Amino acid sequence: MAVRPPRWYFSLRSPYSWFAYRELTENARDVADAVEWRPYWEPGRVTAPLLADQGIELAYVPMSKEKHLYILQDVKRLAAERGLTVGWPVDTDPDWDVSHLAWFLAEDEGMGREYIGRACEARWGRGLDISDPAVIAGIGKELGLDGDALAGAAEDPQTVRRGVEALRQVSRDGVFGVPFFIHRHDKFWGSDRLDRFVETVRAGSRPAPAAAGPHSVPAEPAGQAPAGDAGHAGGCG
């Protein structure tokens, strides 16, 4: 059986994915080149009904108010440590199909990574609504791409089919939050797990088990998912 390549799931709506993107492309380019880049997003207007028709349900848990407030504080702190200023976006009714389906078209032109960088900067650096097709068109034009095509990706049946298949892969891989990294049988959730993922990809082997310590968290029993809005710094749903 062929060994599946390492892969990471990114989302344009996640500030932690933004941090992971910057660290991968700036400090671990060899790993960025070695892994598959895969989008993850909450299904929107066009993909949600198609996934429902196929009986596919992603492991997505709506964020609690308490976690949302914590993330605001945490992201501000982590951004400051990286010399970044966050321009908090105002998008009261986002449709993540718009920005994520556009990525497929940018990727076709060899500009997928650049698109992610521009989209994250637009959302987290300038506080723009990347669910607005006009914003996506502007990003496309900045990259020398067909901005109108990117802005209309969610209206293109072929691109929508690719998006549905990508979200099917999200379900098959058991991804429940972002950023999410997979190497062989090992899964890592959160930007604060990126260093460990980079180590395992570079080593080409499974990581050694972490030693138990006073702050160790017991593993969940097999087949039992944590209840509620579980999470940790470095990742979000």
Account of the 3D structure:
The chain is α+β, with helices and mostly antiparallel strands. The protein has a single domain (7-203), classed as Glutaredoxin, CATH 3.40.30. It has helices at 15-27, 29-34, 47-53, 65-81, 96-108, 112-125, 133-142, 147-151, 157-172, 194-203; strands spanning 7-10, 36-39, 180-183, 186-189. It has a four-stranded mixed sheet with strand order 2-1-3-4, sandwiched between helices. A hairpin with a 2-residue loop joins β3 (180-183) and β4. α5 (96-108) runs antiparallel to α6 (112-125). The longest helix has 17 residues, at 65-81. It is globular, with a radius of gyration of 18 Å.
**Terminus-to-terminus distance:** 32 Å
The count of domains is 1
Helix percentage range:
40-55%
CATH homologous superfamily classification: Glutaredoxin
Beta-strand content bin: 5-15%
Number of helices: 10
Question: Keywords for this structure?
Answer:
isomerase activity; Glutaredoxin; isomerase; 7% strand; 4 strands; DSBA-like_thioredoxin_dom; EC 5.99.1.4; single chain; Thioredoxin-like_sf
Spell out the blueprint of helices and strands.
Blueprint: E1 7-10, H1 15-27, H2 29-34, E2 36-39, H3 47-53, H4 65-81, H5 96-108, H6 112-125, H7 133-142, H8 147-151, H9 157-172, E3 180-183, E4 186-189, H10 194-203
Parallel strand pairs: 1-2
Antiparallel strand pairs: 1-3, 3-4
Biased composition (Low complexity): 205-214
Pfam family, one: DSBA
Organism: Streptomyces fildesensis
